[in-house]
Design a protein that fits this description.
Number of helices: 15
Structural class: alpha+beta
Distance between the termini: 41 Å
Length: 497
């Protein structure tokens, strides 16, 4: 990133969640003199998707998430996507360990705890699938130590609540990785912000909504900003702009007017959790137990029963139950979806509606679910559930990205998309899964894509200090995986195998 002081700031980041904080921290470590500002529409950091109750808090390493390991037509299990997610999370572990070692973050247990990751299925067919999956994954060094069992007693030792009261003749199967984690991304965001505030040239403003973006003659940007409390308006100049505003990033990208934004649309998906803070049951479950998604459902709707650590307390979380809202943010507007429709993306949206009837039927069914239906779903995981121990909570809003597809006009994407202008002066992060868990990989990928010259010329040595495995392939280097995981587990307080 070349020095250019034509604007008020070198970099303006929109949104004060885990993505923006991760990027800002990277930039300050790589080039400390940069003038960086974060603008956030709400009154504090991490109040949308990064808030601990707006996400599952899973350190996604594709240990237990069955949607990353589809079954091929020939019956074999494809683990290629799982491996990608797995080593991406290793990058997060390394970066967080670096920050802890240098004192940027004081305590690992302020945001991360060891929690085994389990997959759990019911029925002979799913049992057979999980066994094949385990065979494929455990043969790879990235999944060394993955356990498999069909034995009720063994599974009960791993996760007692899911087996108590279950029919002893019911065919079940489970896998377990003890190296899993629960991550409070809201607390991590606050940790990073506290560190950034100690750096020269960094500032953050809350209750500031970005209402427009205009390209300047020097190829920088002018941002129109409105104070949400006083309604005062101002403009801020920037050489580079990062749009990390969750679902609102699409709307802001459209306002930028860059041609690269053409054709993108968004499909919002909401969610509801069941949660329990009753310690007599919360302390008897130490796992994130993922099931298998219903046919046609989005990845965020895979049911799971999780141990969570939030506000110094251990919780149980179950869900999510999917829903539909036209909001792009939990604190957004019902007009978000309608106002995002444009001539360049309308056909894509209609094509997705045409080609995803199972998903639409699933969402309608979820919306129509009663309280009783949701507790029935929980009972599949926890037969002995007592409804009075649980409460409902609204999860965060996710916007699945729809992009151009030459064959079908539009395609629904469940991953993360980095969209940037030809000169890389504005970058938007679109999409959801696996989101925060791979924030470090996403930001490194963005630096490689958008700031290749600076990276190659100046930043590689520092990047290797922050992420020792940078430039090497963990998927093919078993010895490196073992070293990295042993080292980061020690710093982060996680289990090893």
């Amino acid at each position: 990133m070349a020095d250019n002081h034509s604007g008020d700031f070198d970099v303006v980041l929109v949104g004060a969640g885990i993505m923006s904080m991760t990027l800002a921290t990277f930039l300050k470590e790589l080039q400390p003199h940069l003038r960086i500002k974060i603008l956030e529409r709400l009154e504090g950091e991490a109040q949308e998707s990064s808030d601990p109750w707006n996400n599952a808090g899973t350190g996604h390493a594709a240990n237990c998430e069955l949607n990353y390991t589809p079954q091929r037509a020939d019956g074999s299990v494809d683990i290629s996507r799982a491996l990608e997610v797995n080593v991406e999370f290793d990058m997060s572990r390394q970066f967080w360990s670096y920050l802890l070692r240098k004192g940027a973050i004081e305590r690992a247990d302020s945001f991360i705890h060891p929690v085994p990751h389990m997959s759990f299925v019911i029925g002979a067919d799913r049992q057979a699938f999980l066994k094949k999956r385990h065979a494929a994954m455990s043969a790879h060094h990235c999944y060394r130590g993955m356990e498999y069992s069909e034995d009720h007693k063994q599974i009960s030792e791993w996760a007692p609540l899911i087996m108590e009261g279950r029919d002893p003749g019911q065919p079940v199967a489970a896998t377990r990785m003890v190296t899993g984690s629960d991550v409070n991304y809201g607390a991590l965001t606050t940790n990073l912000l506290n560190y950034l505030r100690r750096q020269d040239g960094f500032s953050i403003e809350f209750s500031q909504a970005v209402t427009g973006l205009q390209r300047r003659a020097d190829n920088g940007w002018t941002l129109d900003v409105k104070d949400e409390k006083t309604h005062a308006k101002k403009t801020i100049g920037a050489r580079y702009v990062f749009l990390g505003a969750g679902g609102a990033a699409l709307t802001l990208l459209q306002k930028s007017g860059i041609p690269e934004a053409d054709g993108f649309a968004g499909f919002p998906v909401s969610g509801i959790w069941l949660r329990s803070g009753q310690q007599e049951i919360a302390t008897r479950h130490m796992a994130k137990v993922y099931g298998m998604a219903a046919s046609g459902s989005p990845p965020m709707s895979v049911p799971h029963l999780d141990t969570r650590y939030v506000d110094g307390k251990r919780w149980l979380l179950f869900g999510p139950f999917a829903g539909f809202s036209t909001k792009f943010l939990k604190h957004g507007s019902m007009f978000d979806l309608p106002l995002s429709l444009r001539p360049d993306n309308l056909l894509q949206l209609l094509a997705v509606a045409r080609d995803n009837l199972p998903l639409e039927e699933y969402l309608v069914g979820q919306v129509l679910q009663t309280k009783s239906h949701r507790f029935d779903a929980l009972r599949e995981f926890y037969p002995g559930v007592d409804e009075k121990d649980w409460e409902f909570d609204v999860a965060g809003q996710r916007v699945q990205i729809i992009r151009k597809d030459m064959a079908r006009t539009g395609k629904l994407e469940f991953g993360t998309e980095i969209v940037h202008s030809a000169d890389s002066t504005i970058v938007a992060l679109l999409g959801a899964s696996p989101g925060a868990s791979t924030a470090v990989w996403i930001m490194v990928h963005m630096l490689e894509t958008c700031f290749h010259e600076e990276l190659v010329g100046h930043w590689v040595p520092k990047l290797k200090e922050m992420i020792p495995s940078y430039g090497q392939d963990l998927k093919t280097d078993a010895a490196l995986v073992e070293r990295v995981r042993k080292d980061t587990a020690e710093v982060l307080g996680l289990h090893t195998v």
